Amino acid sequence: MPDELWELFQRVVPEPPTRPQGGGRRRHGDREVLAAIIFVATSGCTWAQLPPVFGPSGPTAHRRFAEWTRARVWAKLHRLVLDELGARGEVDWSRCAIDSVNMRALTGGT
Q: Where does the Insertion element IS402-like domain start and stop, copy by copy (predicted)?
């Protein structure tokens, strides 16, 4: 993973939760877990097929993915990357258009 992406990611990732009882296994580092998540997302493999070379197991990477998803890390990172690229003039905003509106679906319809 490029150092530049890692530096941006560190700005949006929440602090790891503390274990009030202490102890337990050492938590895998965020950088190695992020690399595992990126591998799964780009390779098309399943969490269970994650190669051991990444360090964390597939279930560990998936738990952290879910934890970061709940914390909206991906949306924050996406915005941060766009801001960085925009500040450098590397995004052609003239090609961006909003052509739809997202609306929450009603539940319990007839």
A: 1-78
